[in-house]
Specification:
- This protein is mainly beta.
- The protein has a single domain, classed as Immunoglobulins (Immunoglobulin-like), CATH 2.60.40.10.
- It has no helices and 7 strands.
- It is elongated and about 60 Å long.
Length: 106
């Protein structure tokens, strides 16, 4: 039985990966997707900025909110399917955790 919460999972399945620079001040987020054989077009809506063919997104410490992603695929008949990925959080968005000097530097 189909449920709206399933979205377009019958046609596309995606997850994201995050690669940070050495100082963790910038990150590249990549969407890794597997699509059904009938799919002819895949588009990505990063952070509600519109649909584009780019499967990667660059972020830096200026981004203070979660990164959102909606993926839209189109099949050979022109029918569209969408899925919404889990929001991405970055290491610079987490609050500092104060700790005793006993636990610093290793």
């Amino acid at each position: 039985m189909y449920k709206d919460a399933y979205e377009g999972l019958g046609r596309v399945m995606c997850y994201t990966t995050v690669a940070y620079t050495g100082d963790h001040s910038k990150a590249t987020v990549s969407a890794k997707c597997r699509v059904h054989d009938s799919i002819t077009k895949t588009e990505y809506n990063w952070n509600n900025e519109g649909y584009f063919p780019d499967s990667t997104y660059s972020a830096d410490t200026g981004m203070t909110d979660d990164l959102t992603l909606t993926i839209k695929v189109t099949d050979k008949d022109g029918k569209e399917f969408t899925i919404t990925a889990e929001p991405t959080n970055f290491v610079w968005q987490h609050p500092a955790v104060p700790q005793s000097s006993n636990y610093e530097n290793g």
